[in-house]
Amino acid sequence: MSSLFARHALLPEGWRDDVLLEWDAQGNLAAVRENAEAPAGAERADYVLPGMINLHSHAFQRAMAGLAERAGSLEDSFWTWRELMYRFAGRIAPGQLEAVASQLYVECLRHGYTAVCEFHYLQRDIDGAFYADPAEMALRIAAAGQASGIGLTLLPVMYSHAGFNEQPLKPAQQRFRTDPGAVLRIVEVLDARRGPQLEVGAAPHSLRAVSSGQLRELAAALPAGRPLHIHIAEQQLEVRQCLDATGMRPVDYLMQQVDVDARWCLVHATHLTDGETAALAASGAVAGLCPTTEANLGDGLFPLAPYIAAGGTFGIGSDSHVSQSPVEELRWLEYGQRLLRQQRNIAVDGDCRDVGAYLWRQALRGGAQASGRAVGRLEPGRRADLLVLDSAHPNLDGVDSGEVLGRFLFCGNDNLVRDVLAGGQWVVRGGRHVDQDAIARRYTAAVRELRSM
Ligand code: NGQ
Ligand code: ZN
């Protein structure tokens, strides 16, 4: 049994003092005791939080983050960015994907994510044929998860069409081509590796990329309880096209086609009517919000206040990886709403008036649900995934535990995450990932190759 003694730890009921956390060899918390005595020689920490879940990632996009910020000759949009992204996606080889994903996951761990959901659609070879093993690319993602130590939910993506009404895929989308059968075959390969650090679900890419028949087929065939994620209502054009094709808006249409329940994560869900907002909240599904990417791509703002008022569940994801920090993601979630409403302190409810605490705890809850893994709470039976904050930093000097999350989320840009335990392993110590240099070397080599092509 391994242990950590925390002077202050964020438990499911709130901050508690003198907490002894113990975990077993499998990386599961075995005991969490408050008002405990520190055993002789135990490792000690001042402020301990559950690690955050990153519920939406396209790992390969990490290598192009920051390189699409120049205006073209026509007006730039989500759709012009997507053309650039396709060109980039068209070149990546399996070893490069593994190197890029490993680097990304190290960065995520260093900033406080201990789990990630990978929405993985780069399935086929550059020429559009499957690799000898159709799960080749997915297995590279799994290898990156292992190399970094991050907990992983792998979501092989179904992608069959270029747009509503079953439009044929464009040449640049051939690497993504899958149908329900192909996705289920990849799931089967990955299932052999399921375990405490790896869960397997599936993801119909969007209402644009799959038919409603395929959507129902995949949802019905996936083993019960596994997570299902989908991109939805991210852009106004997509909403208009959905209305044209189906007579309904995206979230209304999805809910009419399949039984949207707690296993679903609706990524973005930006453009909602009041009725859709209430229905999504009541469904028990997770809204997968990605504020930095949604800002970067010019999507719009999610109606967070009415969604919270309706009791909706949400989590955060770094999606295109213009940021790898849950602090920046949650900060922008709140700031977007302040700018929209010209008010302050939006993300709270009747029980919790502390914005930082509310955001961290709700994003843990929604992220854990979307991941399908036993994470997000420091309690026995859950994964030993936690962060030790740097209590020697001036921002945390002498603060009450009730002030920690405000300081963590809304004060400056220093990374206050000092040590990170993921699945019972110390993967970050003193702000550095234990394999950071070797993984960065493989990443820079891969990106040099990609950029010289
Ligand atoms: C993706 N990303 O799959 O990487 C998408 C763009 C699409 C975001 N939606 C492609 N942020 O939606 O067609
Ligand atoms: Zn996405």
Descriptors for this entry?
453 residues; alpha/beta; TIM Barrel; 2 domains; eight-stranded mixed beta sheet; five-stranded parallel beta sheet; 17 strands; globular; binds N-carbamimidoyl-L-glutamic acid; binds zinc ion
The neighbouring-strand order within the major sheet is 3-2-1-4-14-15-16-17
Radius of gyration: 21 Å
- Total helices: the number is 14
Q: Note the main sheet.
A: 8 strands, mixed
Which structural category fits the helices and strands? alpha/beta
User: Any idea of the CATH class of the largest domain?
Assistant: Alpha Beta
In round numbers, the mean pLDDT is 98
- The CATH level-2 architecture of the largest domain is identified as Alpha-Beta Barrel
Shape: globular
Q: What is the number of domains?
A: 2
Distance between the termini: 50 Å
> Which cofactors or ions or other ligands sit in this model?
N-carbamimidoyl-L-glutamic acid, zinc ion
Strand content: 15-25%
The CATH superfamily of the largest domain is known as Metal-dependent hydrolases
Helix content: 25-40%
Quaternary structure state of the chains depicted: single chain
Give unreliable regions as ranges: none
* CATH fold name of the largest domain: TIM Barrel
- Topology, number of strands: 17
Helix and strand topology:
Elements: E1 2-11, E2 14-23, E3 29-33, E4 44-50, E5 52-57, H1 78-89, H2 94-111, E6 113-120, H3 136-148, E7 151-158, H4 180-191, E8 198-200, E9 203-204, H5 212-221, E10 228-232, H6 236-246, H7 250-257, E11 264-268, H8 274-283, E12 286-289, H9 291-296, H10 304-309, E13 313-316, H11 326-341, H12 355-371, E14 386-389, H13 401-410, E15 417-422, E16 425-429, E17 432-433, H14 436-451
Parallel strand pairs: 1-4, 5-6, 6-7, 7-8, 7-9, 10-11, 11-12, 12-13
Antiparallel strand pairs: 1-2, 2-3, 4-14, 14-15, 15-16, 16-17
Helix pairs in contact: 2-3, 2-14, 4-5, 12-13
The structure holds N-carbamimidoyl-L-glutamic acid and zinc ion.
